[in-house]
């Protein structure tokens, strides 16, 4: 029931926004059209996007910085991504095989559905994570394209059914004129940057106990982190969230 409410609510909100957008553009409401043009906002069914060229100069500068080092960086990424294509393809095909031919099997990949297997309380953190991932992904494409002297037409963000997205617009004609190794470096740059981001996140997760150690005490007491309602002894004894008990 919860996931149905979320889906219906999302569709109603985005549908209402698109409805008024369609009316204002049909009636040629000039202030609204000028606002969309000046801000780079566009509205389509279930999608709100924003595109800008303000980042082009910065990306161009980064793409011209240490070109030999950047070439080696993206060449390494192209090799690693190419090696992992086969395992990833197998990982994607296994659930299909299990669904078609194996009964009562535990799926390798499970779609995340808000309210079903993703608590609503975690939706904000999940959205932030996706936003960071897609931004790093598209930045990789843009940086690699700038390194190969491809014009960047725009960099933008979008919200599709409340899922954050990012994209970079590149001229297809210029991409076709590049050699195959150059194209591979550009196309694999997004996944390569996500691999590096995942490794950094993994390193940060395992180093948290060391990084956060100065802010916590360990081995000299306990802290009450949760008091379940209806537990008589705990409540009658006066246990409260955040209470600290130390050894004497």
Automatic annotation (TrEMBL):
Residues 128-207 form the Peptidase M50 domain. The chain crosses the membrane at residues 6-24, 73-97, 123-143, 150-167, 187-206. Pfam families: Peptidase_M50. Its EC number is 3.4.24.85. GO terms for biological process: membrane protein intracellular domain proteolysis; regulation of response to endoplasmic reticulum stress. It is found in: Endomembrane system. It catalyses: Cleaves several transcription factors that are type-2 transmembrane proteins within membrane-spanning domains. Known substrates include sterol regulatory element-binding protein (SREBP) -1, SREBP-2 and forms of the transcriptional activator ATF6. SREBP-2 is cleaved at the site 477-DRSRILL-|-CVLTFLCLSFNPLTSLLQWGGA-505. The residues Asn-Pro, 11 residues distal to the site of cleavage in the membrane-spanning domain, are important for cleavage by S2P endopeptidase. Replacement of either of these residues does not prevent cleavage, but there is no cleavage if both of these residues are replaced. It comes from the Eukaryota. It is a multi-pass membrane protein. Keywords: Membrane, Transmembrane, Transmembrane helix. GO terms for molecular function: metalloendopeptidase activity. GO terms for cellular component: cytoplasm; endomembrane system; membrane. Zinc metalloprotease that mediates intramembrane proteolysis of proteins such as ATF6, ATF6B, SREBF1/SREBP1 and SREBF2/SREBP2. Catalyzes the second step in the proteolytic activation of the sterol regulatory element-binding proteins (SREBPs) SREBF1/SREBP1 and SREBF2/SREBP2: cleaves SREBPs within the first transmembrane segment, thereby releasing the N-terminal segment with a portion of the transmembrane segment attached. Mature N-terminal SREBP fragments shuttle to the nucleus and activate gene transcription. This is Membrane-bound transcription factor site-2 protease. It comes from Trichonephila clavata (Joro spider).
């Amino acid at each position: 029931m919860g996931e149905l409410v979320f889906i219906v609510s999302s569709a109603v909100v985005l549908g209402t926004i698109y409805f008024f957008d369609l009316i204002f553009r049909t009636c040629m409401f000039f202030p609204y059209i000028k606002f969309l043009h000046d801000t780079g906002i566009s509205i389509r069914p279930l999608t709100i996007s924003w595109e800008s060229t303000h980042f082009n100069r910065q990306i161009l500068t980064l793409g011209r910085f240490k070109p030999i080092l950047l070439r080696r960086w993206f060449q390494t990424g192209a090799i690693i991504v190419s090696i992992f294509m086969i395992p990833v393809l197998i990982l994607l095909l296994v659930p299909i095989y299990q669904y078609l031919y194996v009964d009562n099997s535990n799926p390798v990949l499970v779609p995340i559905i808000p309210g079903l297997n993703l608590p609503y309380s975690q939706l904000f953190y999940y959205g932030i994570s996706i936003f960071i991932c897609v931004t790093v992904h598209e930045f990789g494409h843009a940086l690699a394209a700038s390194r190969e002297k491809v014009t960047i037409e725009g960099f933008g963000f979008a919200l599709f059914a409340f899922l954050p997205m990012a994209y970079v617009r590149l001229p297809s004609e210029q991409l076709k004129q590049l050699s195959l190794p150059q194209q591979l470096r550009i196309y694999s740059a997004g996944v390569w940057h996500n691999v590096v981001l995942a490794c950094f996140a993994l390193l940060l997760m395992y180093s948290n106990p060391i990084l956060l150690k100065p802010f916590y005490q360990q081995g000299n007491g306990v802290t009450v982190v949760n008091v379940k309602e209806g537990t008589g002894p705990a409540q009658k004894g006066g246990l409260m969230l955040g209470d600290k008990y130390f050894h004497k």
